[in-house]
Specification:
The complex is a heterodimer of chains A (535) and B (174).
Chain A (H helix, E strand, L loop, with lengths): L1 H31 L11 H4 L18 H11 L3 H6 L2 H4 L2 E4 L5 E4 L16 H4 L24 H4 L30 H5 L7 H8 L37 H4 L2 E2 L2 E2 L17 H4 L7 H6 L5 H5 L9 E6 L12 E4 L5 E4 L3 E6 L5 E5 L17 E2 L13 E15 L4 E2 L14 H4 L2 H11 L8 E11 L38 H37 L1
Parallel strand pairs in A: 5-11, 10-13
Antiparallel strand pairs in A: 1-2, 3-4, 5-8, 6-7, 7-8, 9-11, 11-12, 11-13
Chain B lengths: L1 H24 L6 H11 L1 E3 L1 H9 L4 E5 L3 H5 L7 E2 L2 H7 L3 H7 L9 E5 L4 H12 L4 E5 L2 H8 L15 E2 L7
Parallel strand pairs in B: 1-5, 2-3, 2-4, 4-5
The chains are: A alpha+beta (535), B alpha/beta (174).
């Protein structure tokens, strides 16, 4: 009777508990994996349609000066000038607290980098990418709303361009040439709208002196690209515009560039559309705490065209028969220019990986060089930092000029319209270019210079790959994987300790020996038992 | 009966293992990446720093650029011999070829480092050489690009072979 009860209890336990266990496991599995969340995005095309400006008489006047177009715009779009004038796009600087506590105002206006070294003092050329008209020198009036260039962002005709070397002015009757004609202001102002990729790209694709020189993930192939290059901006698919992610309110465009900014605010992120648990897979979603979406979803960058990874200014100035010259690499990218030195380009580049908490330190003009390579904009963060995640980064390495007397990076005068004005790009004389460049910004120059290694860091966010090209687990979870340089935390598959490996190995061997001994023991004793039974 | 079952089980396992082996042997690559991955798994890699060390050491080595000639002339690692992958297997053992290059033919037990643009062709070439009996073959990890980035000052070019350099064009400014 007792045995019978035990059997019944066992049967009951199996009949009741087994389905419960199965249900629990299935429930857990369902919670762990299901279809990814569908992103919720309101695209620009659906968000706002510009009014038909072609009927406005105000815009049909005979414009001879683009500033008159701005004035016409502001007649209806009142107060927009105030919004614009508060932005970093206008001011080219913003008040910032650096990670070391210094309160500074930094931006393109005053920072030095290892591309063209700096905009200030080279206004005629660099200020072509300012959203204003005629910032040719220090006399530029930042308070005059007529100086705002509305068209560079809002032209939807694709015919409006600022002329090269004219400090942000479009061509006039006097300056027009075979490359730049006088814009048709009536046609353009009649066809304005929200900014498109072409508008943002005219500066953000070509910064540093050519397509994809700087960012690595922002370049002209995004104007009409395949899914493989970018799943968001592909013309084969969703065809997103920049401002679909870079949400804009009162002309404040969210999402900023860490080469010119430092603080963890006004950022944008993938979760805006994709939520912070998009995979419906608990293991993947758990990664989001420490791994930026971009890390897995941007396995390579510079997919359409190469990007510059090395720039050596120390070799610039070489001429042949007294004439400047250039050479190219096998892909057709310049790898030597008399005016700029040597470069190395690459395409389909695997990013480097760094902890990044949204803040960046900066070499501020006038800082002493206390380490080499000089970190122009060091990304902050580490594993213990709750805000930090692992990010894919393009690192642009280079050698740039510095003052050996003061131990500071030098502002160079690179650009001038004519030879004999002391600009390096015309006269190839570093000493004169340093004297004039430093003088323009009011800094001391000792008279002696050399070249120092420096790095600029570019966190990557564009050129997101299709999901089938996303990084696989083993590309990071392996000893020589992509994250092999990050050593401040434990990561399965990557981190290892020799004594743990030995402990594991010995455990396995002992287990096998135990099983074998047990089997041999049973065999021996069974043979003995049989013999005993037979005898 | 029990013995029969055990024998059958063992026979089944053996057949299974042999069949799996045959399947693996007969495997076709699904993609080029898979082919390259296998070559990389079966060959030893040398990174740019390792190659620099080798170049500064005393061990005898041969450095082979397996890219096309036109790629080579735009930039190559000093001391490398151009031996495009398409003809590599035919020329690697040819006295005539090495005589024309002015260096000794590499022995099968000497160090050979092959490189291409980014590492894939180099790995395939190294794989091929390994199968030909060269025992110390390495491919340069990341190829010429990694070398160029690690040692930008130690790169040579032969633009004359391509028609020389060009006059300056207007490429200043941003």
């Amino acid at each position: 009777m007792k045995g019978n009860l035990k059997e019944r209890l066992e049967t009951l336990a199996v009949v009741v508990l087994l389905p419960i266990f199965t249900a629990v496991i299935l429930f857990q599995l369902k919670q762990t994996t299901s279809n990814p969340v569908k992103p919720k995005a309101i695209l620009q095309a659906n968000r706002q349609i510009a009014a038909d400006h072609s009927s406005y008489k105000l815009l049909q006047q005979d414009f001879t000066d683009p500033r008159d177009v701005t004035e016409a715009c502001l007649t209806c779009h009142t107060k927009r000038d105030e919004e614009i004038m508060a932005t970093a796009h206008w001011r080219w600087e913003r008040e910032t607290v650096l990670p070391d506590g210094r309160e500074v105002s930094i931006g393109k206006k005053n920072l030095i980098n290892n591309f063209c070294t700096g905009a200030v003092g080279n206004n005629g050329s660099c200020m072509r990418c300012h959203i204003g008209y005629g910032w040719k020198d220090k006399s530029f009036d930042f308070e005059d709303p007529r100086n705002i260039d509305c068209l560079v962002c809002h032209d939807n005709t694709g015919t409006y361009f600022k002329q090269k070397g004219e400090a942000g002015m479009p061509a006039t009757k006097e300056t027009a040439n075979k490359f730049y004609s006088v814009p048709d202001y009536n046609y353009i102002s009649a066809n304005v709208g929200l900014p498109k990729r072409e508008n943002c790209g005219i500066c953000h694709f070509y910064g540093g002196g050519g397509n994809n020189v700087k960012h690595g993930d922002l370049e002209e192939s995004l104007l009409d690209c395949s899914r493989e290059i970018d799943v968001h901006m592909t013309s084969e698919g969703i065809d997103m515009q920049c401002t679909d992610c870079h949400l804009t309110e009162n002309h404040n465009i969210k999402g900023k560039l860490y080469s010119v900014s430092a603080m963890n605010k006004n950022r944008i992120g993938c979760e805006q559309c994709h939520t912070d648990a998009p995979h419906q897979n608990r293991i993947y979603d758990n990664h989001i705490e420490k791994v930026a979406c971009q890390t897995c979803h941007i396995p390579t960058y510079a997919k359409g065209n190469g990007t510059k990874l090395w720039w050596d200014w120390s070799t610039a100035g070489d001429t042949k028969d007294g004439q400047p010259y250039h050479e190219s690499d096998v892909d057709g990218n310049h790898n030597y220019l008399t005016i700029k030195g040597n470069f190395v380009w690459d395409d389909n580049v695997e990013p480097e990986y760094y902890w990044f908490n949204g803040t960046a330190d900066h070499y501020v003009t006038g800082d002493k060089i206390d380490e080499t390579p000089v970190k122009i904009n060091e990304l902050m963060g580490n594993y213990k930092d709750s805000e930090a995640k692992i990010w894919p980064v393009k690192v642009h390495r280079g050698k740039q000029i510095y003052d050996t007397g003061t131990n500071e990076l030098i502002n160079l005068k690179l650009w001038a319209k004519n030879e004999g004005e002391g600009a390096f790009w015309k006269d190839f004389d570093y000493d004169t270019a340093a004297v004039l460049g430093m003088e323009y910004v009011g800094r001391e120059y000792s008279g002696s210079y050399d070249f120092v290694r420096s790095d600029v860091y570019w966190p990557l966010s564009h050129q997101v790959a299709p999901k089938e090209q996303t990084l696989s687990c083993k590309e990071c979870h392996s000893r020589d994987g992509r994250l092999s340089e990050l050593n401040d935390f434990y990561m399965p598959g990557k981190t290892y300790e020799a004594y743990i490996d030995w402990f594991g190995m010995i455990s396995v061997i002992l287990s096998i020996l135990g099983v074998l001994s047990h089997a041999i023991g049973r065999y021996v004793f069974s043979v003995k038992r049989k013999r005993k039974e037979n005898s | 009966m029990k013995t029969k079952c055990i024998l059958l089980l063992i026979a089944g396992l053996v057949i299974g293992v042999v069949t799996m082996g045959l399947i693996i042997d007969d495997e076709h690559f699904v993609s080029t990446d898979e082919m390259v991955e296998l070559a990389m798994e079966e060959c030893d890699a040398l990174n740019a720093e390792g190659l620099a060390e080798l170049m500064m050491g005393e061990e005898i080595y041969t450095l082979i650029d397996v890219r096309q000639k036109v790629e080579h002339y735009y930039g190559y690692i000093p001391g490398s011999v151009i031996l495009p992958r398409g003809s590599m297997e035919f020329n690697i053992g040819s006295e005539k070829f090495w005589e024309s290059e002015g260096i000794y033919k590499p022995m099968k037990d000497e160090v050979i480092v092959v490189y291409c643009k980014k590492g894939s062709r180099g790995a395939l070439a190294a794989h091929s050489l390994k199968h030909m009996g060269y025992s110390k073959v390495y491919y340069l990890e990341g190829g010429f690009k990694k070398w160029e980035l690690a040692y930008p000052d130690y790169v040579e070019k032969n633009l004359n072979a391509l028609g020389g350099c060009h006059e300056e064009e207007d490429t200043g400014g941003c």
